[in-house]
């Protein structure tokens, strides 16, 4: 399985943009890039996913490098409720998602 | 729309005792997953069901763990006997389709198991 590398933790101030990086240098052509997040004492929740082009939804934006070896999850204005562990996961075809340790995002008021 | 329901939310048992977890997926979702999450780690897949069929149980410790999904809806995960190392959060998730690379998984709140 292709693996991802994420920083263990990041800090942000409330109402500032947050850029969460993910490296996936061994990504294959059919791998989608998924982001999930897990708030304290909850199960993970879907954030966004993409293949090649940048993606936007109501929660976040996903910027994918041209060579697809890295991607960045962008939270445009962090709130205290965005404090969570963010997982960057590769998924291909009929393979299930494999979660790593993710990045713990700390948001300060 | 109701989400994935799990019960109980918390369970404390002594080692060697049996324990069971229940999951009700989102209505209409054919695929159901059980994950185990140890402290400080990401969720690890234990078993995946497609309707009633367990299509991936390669990570399920079959000597003590068992699961079933009768009628392709609710599912139960059982541990017998429990060991100290089984203390973890057990998460259930469901999704609608078979193309896992783009199929969004919806997770329940999990059951926190403590084995004393």
Give the topology:
The complex is a heterodimer of chains A (109) and B (116).
Chain A: E1 9-13, E2 18-23, E3 31-38, E4 45-50, E5 55-56, E6 61-64, E7 70-75, E8 84-92, E9 103-108
Chain B: E1 5-7, E2 10-13, E3 19-24, E4 31-37, E5 44-50, E6 53-56, E7 65-68, E8 75-79, E9 88-95, E10 106-107, E11 111-115
Parallel strand pairs in B: 2-11
Antiparallel strand pairs in B: 1-3, 3-8, 4-5, 4-9, 5-6, 7-8, 9-10, 9-11
The residue fraction in helices of chain A comes out at under 10%
Radius of gyration of chain A: 13 Å
Number of strands of chain A: 9
What is the number of helices of chain B? 0
Main pleated sheet of chain B:
7 strands, mixed
Regions of chain B with pLDDT < 50 over 5+ consecutive residues?
Answer: none
Strand content of chain A: over 45%
Element-by-element helix/strand order of chain A: EEEEEEEEE
Strands side by side in the biggest sheet of chain A? 1-9-8-3-4
The secondary structure category of chain B is mainly beta
Q: For this entry, what is the oligomeric state of its chains?
A: heterodimer
Largest sheet, strands/sense/barrel of chain A: 5 strands, mixed
| Strand elements of chain B, count | 11
Number of helices of chain A: 0
Written overview of the protein:
The complex is a heterodimer of chains A (109) and B (116). Chain A is mainly β. Chain A contains no helices and 9 strands. Chain A has a 5-stranded mixed β-sheet with strand order 1-9-8-3-4, with no helix packed on it. Chain A has a 4-stranded antiparallel β-sheet with strand order 2-7-6-5, with no helix packed on it. Chain A is globular. The model of chain A has no long low-confidence stretch (mean pLDDT 93). Chain B has strands at residues 5-7, 10-13, 19-24, 31-37, 44-50, 53-56, 65-68, 75-79, 88-95, 106-107, 111-115. Chain B is an all-beta fold and 116 residues long. Chain B is globular and about 40 Å long. In chain B, strands 2, 4, 5, 6, 9, 10 and 11 form a 7-stranded mixed β-sheet that branches. A 4-stranded antiparallel β-sheet of chain B has the order 1-3-8-7, with no helix packed on it. Chain B has no helices and 11 strands. Chain A binds chain B through residues 30-32, 36, 41-46, 49, 85, 87, 91-102, and chain B through 4, 33, 35, 40-45, 48, 56, 91, 93, 98-102, 104-110.
């Amino acid at each position: 399985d292709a693996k991802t590398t994420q920083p263990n933790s990041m800090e942000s101030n409330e109402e500032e943009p947050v850029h969460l990086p993910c490296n996936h240098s061994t990504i294959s052509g059919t791998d989608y890039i998924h982001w999930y997040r897990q708030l304290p004492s909850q199960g993970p929740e879907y954030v966004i996913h993409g293949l090649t082009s940048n993606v936007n939804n109501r929660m976040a934006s996903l910027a994918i490098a041209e060579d697809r070896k890295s991607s960045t999850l962008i939270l445009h204005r962090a709130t205290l409720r965005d404090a969570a562990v963010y997982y960057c996961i590769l998924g291909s075809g009929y393979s299930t998602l494999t979660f790593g340790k993710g990045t713990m995002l700390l948001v300060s008021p | 729309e109701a989400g994935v329901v799990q019960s109980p939310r918390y369970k404390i048992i002594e080692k060697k005792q049996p324990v069971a977890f229940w999951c009700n997926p989102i209505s209409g979702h054919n695929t159901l997953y059980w994950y185990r999450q140890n402290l400080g780690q990401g969720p690890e897949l234990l078993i995946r069901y497609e309707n009633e069929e367990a299509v991936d149980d390669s990570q399920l410790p079959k000597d003590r763990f068992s699961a079933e999904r009768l009628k392709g809806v609710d599912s139960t995960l059982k541990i017998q006997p429990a060991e100290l190392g089984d203390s973890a959060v057990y998460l259930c998730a469901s999704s609608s389709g078979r193309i896992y690379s783009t199929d969004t998984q919806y997770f329940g709140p999990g059951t926190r198991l403590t084995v004393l």
